[in-house]
Amino acid sequence: MNATKILAAAAIFSLATAGSPQAFHSGGVAECTGCHSMHSPKAGGSYLLIGTDPSSTCLSCHMVPGNLTPSSYHIATADADMGAGKSPIQRTPGGDFGWLRKSYTMTIRSVTSTEYGQTHGHNIVAADTPFVADPDNVTAPGGTFASANLGCESCHDPHGGVRRLSTGVYANVIHTPGANNAPVIGSGSYNNSAAPAAGQAVGAYRLLRGLGDSSQGVVFSGVAIAIAPSTYNQSEATNQVRVAYGASGINTWGNWCATCHPGMHSSGNYVHPIDQSLSDAVANNYNAYVKSGDLTGSASTSFTSLVPFAENTGDIPTLQAHATNTNSYRNGPGSSDKVMCLSCHRAHASGWPEALRWNMEGEFMIYQGLYPGTDNAASSYARGRLAVETQAAYYDRPVTAFATYQRVLCNKCHAKD
Ligand code: HEC
Ligand code: HEC
Ligand code: HEC
Ligand code: HEC
Ligand code: HEC
Ligand code: HEC
After folding, report:
1. What's the Cα-to-Cα distance from 71 to each of 90, 91, 144, 280, rounded to whole Å?
2. Nearest-5° Cα angle at 355, 49 to 62
């Protein structure tokens, strides 16, 4: 692609929705020249890519400088669009990598300390952008995957090998010599993704690697199952984005994340239970919990995207019926649904340390009915942020969604507050 064509393509893609004719990956390998250039690749790069490295190539479309509203497949905000006091803009389930660029300085008990941006999630290496390898973790905590090698392509297969067949079985043509599987007709990620007919397939959720893929030096064993609503990047001030995560056999989110973080998963290793059934007690807490002190909720309205769980099923029509961006399905968990890594963490990055979905650095998330900010009366809990920045990290929810003295969301499952 030459520069003019990329600009034209960017204009078209900004209108693209899932399954539309303007889609790019369409659940599998996209137009080769969107990422590779046969005769004028990026100088100094590899694999004839149009960017210096894989992640720079991805971000040439997935991060659009000057894009000032949450929209579609954009998952990173450029530095120029989030100066001091401004937050990253995108609100996807995975989260905006721009949080990695936001450091906050604060005074705690008279000592000045900094919460560094790099603690906010997965530091992807993208030389054409500001994103650099994590200076703290040399490898994945609990594993050996080198941080210097971490990029979009570590988790997503740019060529989209994993597919879901009409039978519901998953296959990976690229990494399975001798395979003879159906072609991909489109994305399989959405509540409106077509069901593949016999002889057809759709892409795996988010083109994530799986099924024996060892190309990254680690072995992804099963697949990660979920369905997102077809519109999934929006302010959650009114309506939440509910991704319906699934779990079936070895196809669990814990196993998927444990590809690179085996020590954060293994049982008997003193880690929080993962992929474990909630049991009646925890499911009942989740369904009753409204906010600190208020356990009057009901199972039909208890879901919050700040504490998602995995449904104990891999059935795609079921998950498609539960994925929504309009609050049309807000049911909480049953006792066989599961706690997973993504119950507490976002996959890309968040406004909080360790890519957590809520702030764990302090006992109060909300204080005196305020989102803590250096600009208000709750400043002792602000951690160097303005109140609007705190609110952005909760995807713009009104502060009234919580108690006036709201404690951490571990309580959604444990009700200890
Ligand atoms: C979404 C971006 C993207 C698209 C579209 C894409 N590639 Fe790639 N390709 C990559 C990346 C990134 C690499 C670097 C290796 C890796 O990370 O898997 C790569 C590596 C390769 C390689 C060398 C390494 C290997 O895996 O064999 C070949 C050959 C290749 N691509 C062919 C193709 C062809 C043919 C098409 C179109 C049918 C295509 N690619 C479409 C991103 C893409
Ligand atoms: C030429 C622009 C372009 C490039 C380069 C690009 N993408 Fe995309 N990407 C899109 C568009 C447009 C969509 C939404 C439509 C679609 O899924 O086809 C999208 C969607 C996606 C999705 C969601 C797909 C689904 O079915 O759920 C993932 C994941 C993704 N991209 C990852 C990547 C990765 C990883 C790379 C780099 C290896 C990359 N993209 C490179 C334009 C691009
Ligand atoms: C550590 C693994 C990992 C890395 C690295 C990663 N992703 Fe993702 N990505 C995921 C997972 C898991 C999801 C699904 C999140 C969910 O639904 O909760 C996802 C979701 C997405 C989506 C759908 C929107 C969203 O945020 O939910 C896009 C687009 C995407 N990724 C693109 C990228 C691009 C581009 C890069 C590199 C700049 C990248 N990803 C790096 C794991 C990763
Ligand atoms: C392809 C390998 C890979 C996969 C898959 C992967 N991670 Fe990571 N993860 C890493 C690496 C490498 C680091 C260290 C670099 C960093 O912190 O940016 C890391 C760091 C982290 C951190 C610490 C972040 C910080 O800033 O200190 C958390 C939390 C995390 N991963 C959670 C997850 C979750 C949850 C999943 C599954 C959705 C997952 N990871 C999947 C490679 C991976
Ligand atoms: C119940 C919530 C919860 C679940 C479930 C959870 N984590 Fe965490 N994780 C945390 C918290 C809180 C931290 C912050 C520090 C701490 O308490 O260890 C953290 C820290 C981390 C770190 C950084 C550790 C370090 O040494 O820097 C990684 C990596 C990580 N988690 C990965 C995972 C993976 C992978 C899974 C699933 C296999 C997972 N977590 C499941 C809450 C959770
Ligand atoms: C999505 C629901 C969920 C969330 C959110 C959650 N937990 Fe849990 N937690 C569980 C389940 C399920 C168990 C296992 C059953 C039990 O012990 O009640 C558990 C067990 C525990 C245990 C007992 C472990 C043991 O070995 O006995 C502790 C302590 C704990 N959680 C702390 C936390 C903390 C701290 C957080 C917030 C960072 C958190 N949990 C968030 C579901 C959750």
Report:
1. 7, 8, 35, 38
2. 30
Closest ligand by atom to 49 CA? 1
Phi, psi of 53 (to 5 degrees): -145, 175
Contact indicator for 196, 182 with CB cutoff of 8 Å: yes
Contact 229, 325 (CB under 8 A): yes
> What tokens were used for 330?
């807000």
pLDDT tens sequence across 354-411 = 999 999 999 999 999 999 999 999 999 999 999 999 999 999 999 999 999 999 999 9
pLDDT tens-digit profile of 221-248?
A: 999 999 999 999 999 999 999 999 999 9
Reported as a pLDDT band with limits 50, 70 and 90, residue 268 is low
Atom of ligand 2 lying closest to residue 34 CA: 1
Q: Which atom of ligand 1 is nearest to the CA of 34?
A: 5
What does the pLDDT read at residue 5? 37
Please work out whether the CB of residue 409 comes within 6 Å of at least one atom of ligand 4.
no
Closest listed ligand to the CA of 147? 4
